[in-house]
Amino acid sequence: MSTSYEAAGVDIAAGERAVELMKSRVAVSRRPEVVDDASGFAGLFDMSAFARYRRPLLATSTDGVGTKVDLARRLGVYDTIGHDLVGMVIDDLAVCGAEPLFMTDYIACGKVVPERIAAVVGGVAEACALAGCALVGGETAEHPGLLAPDEFDLAGAGTGVVEADELLGPGRVVAGDIVIAMASSGVHANGYSLVRHVLKESGLDLDAEPPELSRPLGAELLTPTRIYALDCLALARSGAVHAFAHITGGGITANLARSLPATVDAVLERSSWAPPEIFALLQRHGNIPQAEMDKTFNLGVGMAAIVPADRADDALRLLADRDVPAWILGEVVPGKGTARYA
């Protein structure tokens, strides 16, 4: 008795249709340095663009969007999860001052549904365009028997470049610097295992419209990650920043501490901002202690910039001009390399 790859659950034709559907959407992220590879096996990028650098350093990052994909699956919304991926990957590059150049993605799914795959990848491409980088390739893998037909996972990797003597980070930070917060768009893409646990235990309905929110809970939780890459680059090129901290898993203080030398602390003021209502809702329905909230969620701060005190106003004006809500979160004082609340 004969069998086939399709009988085993892999539909090659569906994969080919998905590629065709996503081609036009990927084109929105194209940069002039991208070189076409007729075979489609690799993404090509013209490195002669690096000739203007004195000592170019390549920066690379890889990440995924974790269990937020489960909410996207449950709600049948696939065109925003790609923004989360780009935010997680490319904004890590921006922390060191690197210009994002290109990105690749990887989707593993139980069954290739061409329209669904095209929506996911289209979202990645749109977000790459917002971050100023190109989506030069990717892979879709069908895993029948390992993933249910409607299940999928999403990951990616990005590459950027920064001039060696313009590298940002802890070595530039000194006592007296000011910490500026850049607002998040919501929960972003960290802490969703706890979010899903709260939903399960509390019985919260994703279609419900809690009075403290202006839209259904599911739509609020799927709000795509704000992408800060070009805003960070604008700050870096203005000379008004010493370091950045991307606020992801671990929360504000743990991520900010990664951008401090061992000789200083960052002292933050909780009273400087009010976290978006979604965090209070999750905390209340999940009975989550404040310490757990602090180490799990961004609480409304998606990126932090550490700037010289005499450039803080300049940095705030630049961010305002770029429509990025920002405020003074705290200051840098002599210490031991920690970030804490006053």
The number of distinct helices, counting runs of at least 4 residues, comes to: 11
Between the first and last Cα atoms, what is the distance in angstroms?
Answer: 73 Å
Quaternary structure annotation = single chain
What global shape is seen? globular
- Provide the low-confidence segments as ranges: none
Structural class: alpha+beta
The number of E-state strands comes to: 12
> In percent, how helical is the residue content?
25-40%
How confident is the prediction overall: mean pLDDT? Answer: 92
The sequence of SSEs as H and E is: HEEEHHEHEEEHHHEHEHHEHEE
Rg over CA atoms, rounded to whole Å, is 21 Å
As laid out across the biggest beta sheet, the strand order is 8-10-7-11-9-12
Main beta sheet = 6 strands, mixed
Strand-residue proportion:
15-25%
